[in-house]
Specification:
This protein is of the alpha+beta class. It contains two helices and three strands, in the order ααβββ. The chain has a three-stranded antiparallel β-sheet, with helices on one face.
């Protein structure tokens, strides 16, 4: 009877760190996907403001009101298109996951529209 208890304890001790790592990694990856979706929605609002002839400072203030950690960049590449970038850094909480992702992980969305 004691051998079975000891075997179960050893199996538990071996599996527990792997399980905790997987759960934390799923949380981090979910957070990255969620932030990316939020930035996509915010970028749509930024483009609407740009098309309504708002100034860069007005657009930047609107973005900063929604989230102070978001970086906005607007580039006029040439006379035909404008490129919008929204970036936010996400802190990775899973130990060891920074081997795969840099910490903080920059989540960036980009959209190119025709120049108006």
């Amino acid at each position: 009877m004691n051998k079975k208890r000891g075997q179960a304890l050893v199996e538990f001790v071996i599996i527990l760190p792997i399980f905790v790592f997987m759960v934390l990694a799923i949380i981090d990856i979910g957070k990255i996907i969620y932030i990316r979706n939020e930035l996509e929605n915010e970028l749509s609002d930024v483009i609407d403001l740009y098309r309504n002839k708002k100034t860069y400072n007005d657009i930047l203030n609107d973005v900063k009101i929604n989230d102070k950690d978001v970086e906005l960049e607007i580039q006029n590449d040439d006379n035909e298109k404008v490129t919008f970038y929204l970036t936010k850094n996400i802190e990775i909480i899973t130990p060891g996951l920074n081997i795969i992702f840099e910490n903080p992980y920059p989540v960036e969305v980009k959209r190119v529209i025709g120049y108006e």
